[in-house]
Amino acid sequence: MNDDTMTLPRSLQLGGATLQLARLQPQDAPALAAFAAALPPHDLLFLRRDISHPKVVAAWMQASAEGRLHSLTVREGDALVGCSAIVVDELSWSRHVGELRVLVAPAWRGRGLGRVLIQQCFAQALALGLDKLVAQMTVDQVAAIAVFEELGFRAEALLRDHVKDRDGQLHDLALLSHDVAAVQSRLQAFGVADALR
Asked: Which domains does the chain show, CATH number per domain?
């Protein structure tokens, strides 16, 4: 699988600012670590692993270099303000499914950056030949669930007490999914046609 059809890096105009969208590179590790450290702890529950730990960042970088994870970064100047990842397990029965992860800096929430990253991930998923994208988040992340649902994701499962946060509190986990093939018929509506250029 290959996502080279996307033209990156490139500039984005959003909320009166110029942002840079690019693929994750090895030199991005310090910026990714700083980004993770600045996130509220509850935001880290979007991911299976706590990316505030250096070992997890190192594993992310290695998986990206090996092509098991397809990550994008968004920067405002030198600061990382958003990132996404599509995790694909080529050796599993579900190699046609990508697990989507999206994180946005608090200052950029409600400004459309999460939506842009998800749209870019649709373009990546199409280029990678994936049939389905799934996203997981705790059910109290209502705003994030709403953005995913607006883009066509639908709830498939609810796993009770599936996530334990740093304080030992349990959270229910929602699993949402989207048929990537269905996106092809709505490229214009989602703005992905521009992402594929």
From this structure: 10-195 (3.40.630.30)
